[in-house]
Structures are given as C-alpha cells and as structure tokens.
Specification:
By secondary structure, the protein is α/β, with parallel strands linked by helices. The protein has 17 helices and 14 strands. The strands form 3 sheets. A 6-stranded parallel beta sheet has the order 3-2-1-4-5-6, sandwiched between helices. A 6-stranded parallel beta sheet has the order 11-10-9-12-13-14. Strands 7-8 form a two-stranded parallel ribbon. The structure holds nicotinamide-adenine-dinucleotide. The site of nicotinamide-adenine-dinucleotide has 27 residues, from helix 1 and helix 5.
Length: 432
C-alpha cells in the first residue's frame, strides 16, 4: 500500500519505517527541512535501539523516502497518517491541536482520489469529527474517511512495540476503511496481535484512558513506597505481592521518580481538560497529576536530608537524566525539575547520560556533562541514579571512586541494598 506519515518524529518515523519494512511504500513528511535532509543522508534524529539499521535498510531498497513536500506526498498516497505533536496548550491543560488542524487544512487542499486519513497522534475525543468538518469544507464525503488509530509504542522499545503490539485499535465509522486497515495490519495480527475495531470516538478515548490508567499505577506504587519508607518494608516485596494478582498485573509497579516523558504528563492533563468540557469530574486522574507534580519535591527533600541540608557547593552527580532508559527524550523528565532547584541552592552538578550532552541545562551555570561515568562520579558528595540505564547496573563504585567513599541515592532501585552497601559509604533507595 502507499502510505504517507505526516510528522516524522518518534511516532511518524518509527511507524513509517516499520510499515515500509512490512512491504509498503512509505513517504515520511516533515516541515522541518533540516530533519528531512539529515534523514536523507542517513542521520537519525532520535536515539531508539534498532531504528538506524531499519531506516537505512528500507531507504536503500526504496520503500522508504523522506520529503518536505506535503501536497505531493498526499497525492501519491492512499493512506495518510497524521503523526504531528499534540502538546499541552500554553495557557491551560488542554491539548494544543493547532498542528493537527493545520495538517487537516493542508490535506483538504490536496485530495485527488479516495484517501483514508488517520490520526495516529494522541487526540481528544471528538477531534476526528473536527478534522472531518475541516476537510468537508473543500472535499466531498465520498472522497475521504477519517479514522482513529492511536499508537501505543513506548520510547526505547518502539520498534518491538510496533511489530508486536498487544492490540491494534481502529476507530472508524466506515466499514470499507476498517477492512483496508485490517489488511494493512494483517502481518501483525497474523503473529497474534489483537485487532480491535470500534467507532472513532471510542478509539480516541481508549488512548487517553490507557495512559491515564498507567500513570495512575505508577503514582499509586510511588505513594505506597512512601509508606514503606516509614514502616521498614521493601516496596519490591509489595510490587511482587500485588503484581502476581492477575487482576492487577506486575507491570508499571516500579517505584521511582515522578513519571515524565512526552505522553503521560500531557495526556493526563488533556483527558481531565476534555472531561471538564463535558462537565465530568475525573477526580482520580486529578489526584494522580497532583501527586506526581509533588513527587520531585518529595525526592528533593530526601536529597536535602541525605546531605544534612547543606547543599551549597556540594558536588552532586546524576547518572542518567532522560525520563527513562533507552531514549534520548528529555521531555518532562524529572531531572529537569530537580537539577535547577539543586543549582539554585548552590549545588554543583555533573551528569552522565549514555545519550550524551543535553542542551536543556545550557542556561544553568553549575551543570556540567561528563563523557564518562568515572568522570561524573569522581569527587562527588552524592551520586543520584536517576535513570535505569543498563550501563549503571554493573558499576563497581568501590573501584570507581578510589579512596573516597560514596553516598548513593538510587531512585530506581537498581541495586540490592545488601550487596551495594559493601561498596559505598551510604546507600539510599526508594521505598525500602
Ligand atoms: P514529535 O514532536 O517527536 O514529532 C512531531 C513531528 O511533527 C515533528 O518532527 C514536527 O516537525 C512535525 N510536524 C508538525 N507540524 C507539521 C506539519 N504541519 N507538517 C509536517 N510535519 C509537521 O512527536 P511524537 O513524540 O512523535 O508524538 C506525535 C504524536 O504521537 C503525539 O500526539 C503524541 O502524543 C503521540 N504519541 C507519542 C508517543 C511517544 O512515545 N513519543 C507514543 C504514542 C503516541
């Protein structure tokens, strides 16, 4: 099939390259000329395991191409995926849909034969109706169908998640489009992924409800971890003990810093805002947002306690600054909240992240990026393990720090307290 991905970010690039690998002709379009010219030269703009090899393979065999020409790309394609950003609005918590509506207008100017127009971007319920209205201003209803096909891939495991999704959700009000998409996804459903066909509004809401539920699970276990710290219980035992109940499930029960990333923070806010519009009070999700917002300050309070409230001139090392491992994405990472506050109190920060330097800290004067773990850790008064990269799991702190005995605050519980305590002066973790 001939596909066009509008927006070549995480979702557009990963799903575009995977669709091309499944044998489709895919054009990935973006308005960012630099991004497209880099991609044409084989330079991948994001860090995602396995992505580079797959892009190069499919670009070489000409099933995958890159373009900035939206009109031409739409005309050449039968199925158009909208994969642009839907960030939080500047003045309130609603999703900013300006990129979606701009693209919808562009599409309406370029339809020359029947097209399926799909929102893969996460959009609030009824957005599909709005897109349809925009296109109807220029184009007859017979020439297009607007479908919702939300994406559930996780950064860091995006390719695996795309190829082996738990489910593929197609929200369509038209049977012909559902049939075409069933066939597009048949290589994945034949390997066991479930195909769920529903109406457009339901598909839109499934995405937000999923993210809000996962954010709730993380926030729940983080709060239980707070209680464990006061009662000398190991949160890991609680996670195992409750996770084995099939009604609960063991995933997303790892206590740690506040959830971050490009999806949970913005999507929890957006679903609350959508519900408010319909006079529905999503009080559980509101509490989740509040608890998560407070979590970075709560963990900072523990940092202050560990350093006896003497922060000025203290050398603090962050191992990992991205919101999770295996991605270079810094969007809404809790390190962005913690590091500026520590700097304000006079701390000197060094960080090491396997994905390198982060321009997000450019404006802070006492933040330095180290190119090795050893350099970052050397001379530190406190080492904070912020992101659970595998690179950190086998560090021998005793060897690394020489005679200086380190204090570690492991915000991801990657070490066993009994083992690590032999290597360091003091070891603190979450919920134990
Ligand atoms: P992103 O910011 O990485 O990429 C969006 C791209 O769209 C950018 O490259 C931008 O230049 C491009 N763009 C914007 N307007 C355009 C236009 N008019 N024409 C052409 N290109 C345009 O965003 P992302 O992380 O890929 O997320 C995209 C959507 O998918 C969001 O709604 C997000 O919530 C959702 N989503 C993201 C993930 C994730 O893990 N990142 C997972 C599932 C769903």
């Amino acid at each position: 099939m001939k596909l066009c991905m509008i927006g070549t970010g995480y979702v557009g690039l990963v799903s575009g390259v995977c669709f091309s690998d499944l044998g489709n002709d895919v054009i990935c379009v973006d308005r960012d000329e630099n991004k497209i010219s880099q991609l044409k030269q084989g330079n991948i703009p994001i860090y995602e395991p396995g992505l580079e090899e797959l892009v190069l393979k499919n670009f070489k065999n000409k099933r995958l191409s890159f373009s900035t020409n939206l009109k031409d790309s739409i005309r050449k394609s039968d199925i158009i995926f909208i994969c642009v950003g839907t960030p939080t609005k500047k003045n309130n918590n609603a999703a900013d849909l300006s990129q979606i509506f701009t693209v919808a207008k562009e599409i309406s100017k370029s339809i020359n034969k029947f097209k399926i127009i799909i929102t893969k971007s996460t959009v609030p319920v009824t957005t599909g109706d709005e897109i349809e209205k925009i296109i109807l201003k220029k184009i007859s209803k017979k020439l297009f169908s607007v479908v919702s096909n939300p994406e559930f891939l996780r950064e860091g495991e995006a390719i695996r998640d795309f190829i082996y999704p738990d489910r593929i959700i197609i929200g369509s009000n038209d049977k012909k489009s559902t049939q075409i998409l069933r066939s597009l996804y048949s290589p994945l459903t034949s390997k066991g992924s479930k195909f769920v066909s529903t109406n457009r509004r339901a598909a839109e809401l499934i995405k937000y409800a999923s993210n809000a539920f996962l954010a709730t699970k993380i926030t729940f276990i983080n709060e239980i971890a707070n209680l464990c710290e006061k009662t000398q219980i190991d949160i890991e035992d609680i996670s195992i003990g409750i996770g084995l109940d099939k009604r609960i499930g063991g995933r997303f029960l790892r206590a740690g810093p506040a959830y971050g990333g490009s999806c949970f923070p913005k999507d929890t806010k957006a679903i609350v805002s959508t519900a408010d519009k319909f006079n529905i009070n999503l009080s559980v999700i509101k509490s989740v947002i509040k608890s998560n917002t407070q979590r970075s300050d709560l963990l900072l309070k523990r940092v202050y306690e560990i350093l006896n409230n003497r922060i000025k001139n203290k050398k603090i090392c962050f191992l990992g600054v991205t919101f999770k491992a295996n991605t270079d994405d810094m969007r809404d990472s809790s390190s962005l909240k913690m590091i500026p506050k520590l700097v304000k109190k006079g701390a000197k920060i060094k960080y090491y992240d396997p994905t390198g330097f982060k321009k997000d800290f450019n404006k802070l004067k006492d933040v330095r990026c180290s190119s090795t773990i050893q350099d970052a850790v050397n001379g530190s008064d406190l080492v904070i393990i912020h992101t659970e990269w595998n690179d950190f799991k086998s560090i021998n702190f005793k060897k690394l720090s020489g005679s200086k005995k380190l204090i570690i605050f492991d915000m991801r519980n990657i070490f066993l307290p009994t083992k690590i305590k032999k290597q360091v002066f003091k070891y603190f973790s979450i919920g134990r």
